[in-house]
Specification:
Elements (H helix, E strand, L loop, with lengths): L15 E12 L6 E12 L3 E5 L6 H8 L7 E6 L2 E2 L5 H11 E4 L11 H11 L6 H10 L15 H13 L5 E5 L7 H18 L3 E4 L3 H4 L4 E6 L2 E7 L3 H12 L5 H7 L16
Parallel strand pairs: 3-8, 3-9, 6-7, 7-8
Antiparallel strand pairs: 1-2, 1-4, 4-5, 9-10
Length: 281
């Protein structure tokens, strides 16, 4: 595998869901100052599944937090659709996150005393909205949780709980869903199922998903991988495979993955193309 799989990032000019210009985040001052993100320009297309990857400390989580309005930028701008979020006050940001952004985290964050259905509809109801029953039923169908809607989290597997969390994130029809290591607490089989459902939500429901992951196999489910290194955009990989992502990470980090690490994410003797057993995007 050569490093030619990594290409310069191609700027998008239309159908943009999320974008950043000159986005910068600096922590600390003086000798303790650390630049986590350094004048980043990037766009994410509507109806696309994009993975953000990079070596440890590359700035991938910082980028997601700034794009989602979970942290404030030192300088630069970020937009959700046509709304510049870097100028919003706390109340406006809270409303934007509630109404236009969905979140899927490594921890499922389901309330243990509520059923799956109650967990899914809770944010909409707390916001004073009305649940779209047809959309709810479509999500339950696509995510294969119809038989689990009356179950509490303790009665579901980790993969089922994460699919409930995905339905909760999608119910309000957000402009974008940010997923932060969504398979981090799942075994390989459950992780593959969750990633496949995320991809199906893009293809069948028109969702826009931006996922941060450290796992090349997980990234291979995306349409596109954005690579970061030292707080800068280092390139992109279109239609990624796990092998291509490994090579890309090698190219931007200069550190060759160990044989054990590589074998854990690259499928061998399989027609599926990644260690989770799902088809590549």
């Amino acid at each position: 595998m050569t490093t030619s799989v990594v290409s310069p990032v191609t700027p998008l000019t239309e159908n943009i869901a999320v974008r950043a210009r000159g986005l910068t985040k600096v922590y600390g001052t003086g000798d303790a100052q650390v630049t986590a993100l350094d004048h980043v320009d990037v766009e994410f297309g509507k109806g696309q599944f994009t993975a953000i990857m990079g070596p440890s400390g590359s700035g991938k989580s910082t980028l997601m937090h700034l794009l989602a309005g979970l942290d404030s930028a030192t300088s630069g701008q970020a937009w959700i659709g046509n709304t510049e979020i870097t100028t919003l006050n706390d109340k406006a940001l809270t409303n934007l996150r509630r109404d236009r952004i969905g979140f899927v985290f490594q921890q499922f964050n389901l309330l243990p005393m509520l059923t799956a259905e109650q967990n899914i509809v809770l944010p909409v109801e707390l916001g004073g909205g009305k649940v779209d029953k047809a959309w709810f039923n479509q999500l339950a169908e696509v995510l294969d949780i119809k038989q689990r809607l009356g179950h509490r989290p303790s009665e579901m597997s980790g993969g089922q709980q994460q699919r409930v969390a995905i339905a909760r994130a999608l119910l309000s029809k957000p402009d974008v869903v940010f997923a932060d290591e969504p398979t981090g607490n799942l075994d390989a089989r459950s992780g593959a199922q969750v990633l496949d459902f995320l991809r199906r939500s893009v293809k069948e429901l028109g969702s826009t998903i931006i996922m941060v992951t450290h796992d090349p196999a997980a990234a291979s489910f995306a349409n596109r991988v954005i690579l970061l290194a030292d707080g800068h955009i280092a390139g992109e990989i279109a239609n990624p495979t796990a092998e291509a992502v490994l090579a890309g990470l090698d190219a931007v980090s200069g550190i060759r993955p160990t044989e054990n690490a590589a074998s854990s994410v690259v499928s061998t003797g399989s027609t599926t193309g990644n260690a989770f057993g799902g088809r590549n995007a």
